[in-house]
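Structure tokens please, single chain.
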Amino acid sequence: MEEHTTKLAEANRALQGEVAALEEAHAEQEGTIRLQELINRATSTRELMHLVTDYFRNWLKCDAVGIRLREGEDFPYYETKGFPESFVLAENSLCITDPTGEMVRDNAGNAVLVCMCGTVISGRFDRSKPFFTERGSFWTNCTTKLLASTTEADRQARTRDRCNGEGYESVGLFPLRVGTEPYGLLQINAKRTGLFSPARVACLERLGGFLAIALSQRRTEEALRESKKALRGSNRALSVLGQGNEALVHATSESNLLQDICRILVEKGGYRLAWVGFAEQDAAKSVRAVAQMGYEDRRPPRGAAPSPS
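Here you go.
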């Protein structure tokens, strides 16, 4: 009888495990679909990060979500939901400086990134530690126990312990990386214990991978748009310079030259208004308008610069 009861208990546990695995798989499938919808819906990186932080916070029912993105050599918070403002300000930068104000660097010349966020972003992790995953994520269901049972050497980081100080027990840090290129980090905090399971952590790592690819593509597109914009500006400047030189060569009088220069700046340079004035040697120190183009060619009164309508 006792053996039969033991077998039933084992079968029940196995069944519960299978049900939990199916639920996690279903949640991941829904999460992937929803994340893709948000990626397609967002028109900018800022909007995407806003939508994503809202989504993760609502889905996981956690207290706070943050996303760090690369900015130069640092990885400050780009978007946060639920963190106190004081926490964000205190934890924003991961870089440190020496007493002379110089950025601290490692032997390879890279900026040293502190705290556990910096460890995850930098890829400095020990797979043998239970709080790191094979992909380099960090997670714990109880920061209090973790800090009490490990050293900074164990954690491979000089932690600032502010997450625990704010009462966050469950903390997950997931790198946003494409290949070996770090784009940032997804941070999920909850004040309750037990938010994460190995299956949920694996799911969040995969979703983080999708998000990193979307970030990479979006930033490439944004950089391309900025490059095209800068190129158009350079082409306009060259066109203005060329036509200005031509006007100088063919000018028959100073007044005609100045009027042609104003016209070129407006028609070819894209400016709304170009105006030339000469300073008068009078008591009022007035300015005499001698040429203008733009704003419907309304010439300013003597002694006054043109003002927009």
